[in-house]
Every structure is written in C-alpha cells, then in structure tokens.
Amino acid sequence: MDFQFITPSEVIEYLFCPRFVYFMNVLKINQHEHRRNLVNKGRNIHKLKLVHNKDYIRSRIGVNEKLADVYLSSQQLRLVGKIDEVLFLNNGLAAPLDYKYSFWNNKVFKTHKMQQTLYSLLIEENFGISVEHAYIVYIRSKNHLQPIPVTDAMKHKALDLLETIFEIVNKGLFPNVKRNKRKCEDCTYRNICVS
C-alpha cells in the first residue's frame, strides 16, 4: 500500500538529509527531536504566540482578512500541513505567514523557502487563490517581517521533492548521501545510520 500523506516538516527533514524520511517513514523510527533545546523553544513560541504588534505587521502588507492555525490537506498533492496564518490580501492574492523563533540574519534558509512554497500550494488548492509571496516573522529580531517570493520554479521544485520522497517511502529505498560532519553530529539518527 502506498504511503498517503507527507508534511512540509518532513520535506524539511529530507532537505537536511534524505535518510530522515527513510528512518521516519519506512523503518518507523521516531527521531525524538523533543530533546533538542532550540526545537522546544520554537514549539513553545508557537504555542504562546508571543508576538507583539501582529496587526501592525499585517497592515504593512495589505491584509484584508486572516485565518490563524489553519490545517490544510491536499489529496492531489498527498500533502498536509498546519499554517500559522493564511493571509488574504487587498490585491486579491493570498499568502502564508509563519513565525520563526530565530534571528533574521539577512538570509532566508532554503528549508524555510520550501516550507512556505508547500504551504502556498496548499493555500492555492484549498482556497482557489493565487500565492505569489509568503512571509516569515523572525521573532528574535524584534519581529522582523521578511517577504519571500514564491515563483513557479519554486512550486515545480516542491512538487519534484514530494515525488522523490514518495518514491523513497513507497519503494523502501535507502538514499545514498555524502557524510557531512556538521549535520551528522547533530543528527538524531547518527547512532543507527550507516556512513
């Protein structure tokens, strides 16, 4: 039986190391990421929503309406995810907005771009409204608001990644990867992964 759904978080894990999806979804080994300090802080900030001046942040980008903590799914994409906020803009477009418990360092990580692209695909399918930008609020940098263009090329790449992940999971393929000392030392599967 084919694997049914994947989350944007699992795609991010794949981008960190393709073997994550193998260990999590083929071997069904939990990574116990709750033990990592930064992950806990990030989860807590999402629970508490300790962001000041949210209305000011939204007014800067022309928000007409918003939905908070939106769970969306797509049978076609085989994708499910919970979006911090879905924004409906004055220009007739929509956008995901995500809160990150991190500092703005003048760079949007490719994992964050991909996560927002996947959220954008979910919004487009569920609401029938185009998405051209996503937004991230970097909480530890005084709620810095960073727009992210969501291009057609990014959407195609996201779809390709989903297909690759489903191939690994459904066929039980063990991905070949190059050892990366920095990543491997921080990996929750380092004790069982064959280098």
Question: What would your notes on this structure say?
Answer:
The chain has 195 residues and is α+β, with helices and mostly antiparallel strands. The chain has one domain (8-185): Lambda Exonuclease, Chain A (Alpha-Beta Complex). Helices cover 41% and strands 22% of the residues. The chain is built from seven helices and five strands. The protein has helices at residues 8-16, 19-26, 37-48, 54-60, 110-127, 152-171, 181-185, and strands at residues 63-74, 79-89, 94-100, 133-138, 144-149. The chain has a five-stranded mixed beta sheet. The two termini are 30 Å apart. The relative contact order is 0.19.
Properties at a glance:
single chain; 195 residues; 7 helices; alpha+beta; Lambda Exonuclease, Chain A; 22% strand
Biggest pleated-sheet summary: 5 strands, mixed
Distance between the termini: 30 Å
Strand order, main sheet: write it out. Answer: 1-2-3-4-5
CATH class: Alpha Beta
Order of helices and strands: HHHHEEEHEEHH
- What is the overall pLDDT average? 87
Question: Domains counted in the coordinates: how many?
Answer: 1
Strand content: 15-25%
Helix proportion range: 40-55%
| CATH fold-level name | Lambda Exonuclease, Chain A
The outline comes out as globular
Number of helical stretches of at least 4 residues? 7
Name the structural class.
alpha+beta
Count of β-strands = 5
Poorly predicted regions are: none
Write the topology of this structure:
Elements: H1 8-16, H2 19-26, H3 37-48, H4 54-60, E1 63-74, E2 79-89, E3 94-100, H5 110-127, E4 133-138, E5 144-149, H6 152-171, H7 181-185
Parallel strand pairs: 3-4
Antiparallel strand pairs: 1-2, 2-3, 4-5
